[in-house]
Structure prediction request, 241 residues.
Amino acid sequence: MAIYVQSEDFDLSAELKQLTANTASTIGAVVSFVGLVRDIIGETSLTALELEHYPGMTERQLAAIEAEAHQRWSPIKTLIIHRYGRLHPGDQIVLTIVASTHRATAFDACRFLIDRLKTDAPFWKQEETTQGTHWVASREEDNQASARWKNKTSTNLE
Amino acid sequence: MKILYFSWVRSKIGLAEETVTAPNRVNNVASFLAWMETRGPNYADALANPAIVRIAVNQDYASANHPINNDDEVALFPPVTGG
Prediction:
């Protein structure tokens, strides 16, 4: 279990290698999710993204999400990295990785981590576009994706 | 208590954080929010639509009847948009 909240970029390949080091006999599947900064929002073009967060609560909420994943799908290995600060189109924002014995668990747990992170981790995006600066509004789809995990151990794409 | 503000709640209130002593009648989230709205037009404006303001007490999300006292760290912010 590991959580990093950082301004620096990350290297998926290096993180994946580190997570699975010395576990060759038990790990048969690794699923990762990487979130990127999009450059088009509706009809405007994004120039930069400022990611604010609540230091302390961020780590606390991510740890709670990770702990819940371990409770549901044990044994798994997990990593969450989320960046903050000033980002630009194409930059990596977030990484979640789950390593497990079989693929179904790795897919489910990885999706759980990112779905719950979206609604529980205290980050806020401010977009700077060609038409001005504004705070991003939360999306109802994200609330539904997170809520679906309440009574399920697996969720299918709709 | 220490109160922290984030995102547009911070912009509307005009502060990132402050340390205040709440009156005795403030004992839970509901009474805390009712008191906060009376502290000035900037507070009333930031808290005008409760549906889009989240509250955390000691870094955990809290509902209306969650207790609050003057030793707590309280935070007010919009629905989160990370990931």
